Amino acid sequence: MTTITHHAPDALLAAYAGGSLPKPFALAVAAHISLCLDCRAAYEAHLATGGAVLESTSSEAVSEGLKSNVLDLLDAPVTEKPVYQRSGAFPGPVMEALKGKPPRWKSLGMGVRQSILSDGRDGSVRLLYIPPGRAVPDHSHNGLELTLVLQGSFSDETGRFGVGDLEVADQTLEHTPIADAGAPCICLAATDAPLRFNSFVPRLLQPLFRI
Amino acid sequence: MKQSSPQISDLTAAMIAVRNDRDRDAFALLFDHFAPRLKGFIMRTGTGSGQAEEIVQDVMLTVWRKADQFDPERAQVSAWVYQITRNRQIDVIRKENKPLPEELGEDPSAEPDASQILAVEQEAGQLKGALERLKPDQREMIEKAYLGELTHQEISTQTGLPLGTIKSRIRLGLEKLRHELKELR
Ligand SMILES: [Zn+2]
Ligand SMILES: [Zn+2]
């Protein structure tokens, strides 16, 4: 059992609880909370604050029929959405993004692979597979980047990140995460903008690989 | 039981009755309390009256259907209802499902620890008091954050609210649940 040392900052948990995070970040935070009891407690404290806001909001009278409508529907049959269970290194929310299937890896060269879970206007989120000693291609960030380790570990200029650790990086950080010795490192990486590579060649490859 | 000892609130008792006994009268009490507050809360994000009532209906039905997930040792009813509401609003307005953390696996204990429930309620009450004592502009900022109208950059880490104590209460409830889960395996 590893100990989580890099947590979600409180402002990020508040934004997640309030529901203002774009979906890629919300996925990374939901996955971290699934692995981290400390951040789950902090998240639920923010829900308590949300509850206090709800309690102190001024009321609006509801239509006359609403209550009887709801009471009539209590036993109506419903189709439940499937619940995705944790599978191997992948917590429930990641399995949901994978729709219950194993990741479809695409090679990025040097043994590094990625599987894009979503890529849209609100950002992108992908799984990265990095063999020991290999680096995530050198890149800088347009905005915010959240990286959650799911298997193995990596190290960069700011420290070592093991299973469950969440790295929060922004424009000001130029880093080169390198997978440590041992099991290949698998992580979930969410950004609110496409990553761009610093070196010339990978930049040419960028449209091809959607990095 | 001593007469002077503090009692679990009516709302929490009603929610436990819904969860354990599928008690419809208790559910009606929850509806009367929450439906108008929910409608007011939802309309503050610019949603019209008709759509707000549809969301209120969905939320209240979820309260009934997912009652087994309510754990009074970790959350006050309003916190739990708040979570359901924000998730439903995001589903309806952004037309996407908000990614949610894993559930903890097992149902919360049927016979919850009254002292832990009271402690959670007390902390939540203090939180509400602190919210009401904030300066108007600070309070408005907090309300916006929990209505989903501030980005994470805009939410300052210092909310001015005493989240530390409730966090440790919740943590205690989680530890207990995790301990019980371990014993089950
Ligand atoms: Zn954490
Ligand atoms: Zn990076």
UniProtKB/TrEMBL annotation, chain A:
Domain ChrR-like cupin: 104-188
Source taxon at top rank: Bacteria
Coiled-coil region: none
NCBIfam families linked to this entry: anti_sig_ChrR
Protein name according to UniProt: Anti-sigma-E factor ChrR
Organism: Octadecabacter temperatus
From TrEMBL, chain B:
GO molecular function: DNA binding; sigma factor activity
Source taxon at top rank: Bacteria
This protein's record includes keyword Isomerase: no
Keyword Transcription regulation attributed: yes
Gene3D superfamilies: 1.10.1740.10, Winged helix-like DNA-binding domain superfamily/Winged helix DNA-binding domain (1.10.10.10)
Family stated for the protein in its record: Belongs to the sigma-70 factor family. ECF subfamily.
InterPro entries, per database record: RNA_pol_sigma-70-like, RNA_pol_sigma-70_dom, RNA_pol_sigma70_r2, RNA_pol_sigma70_r4_t2, RNA_pol_sigma_r2, RNA_pol_sigma_r3/r4-like, WH-like_DNA-bd_sf
Record's protein name: ECF RNA polymerase sigma factor RpoE
Name of the encoding gene: rpoE
Residues that span the membrane, as ranges: none
Keywords carried by this UniProt record: Sigma factor, Transcription, Transcription regulation
BP term (GO), one: DNA-templated transcription initiation
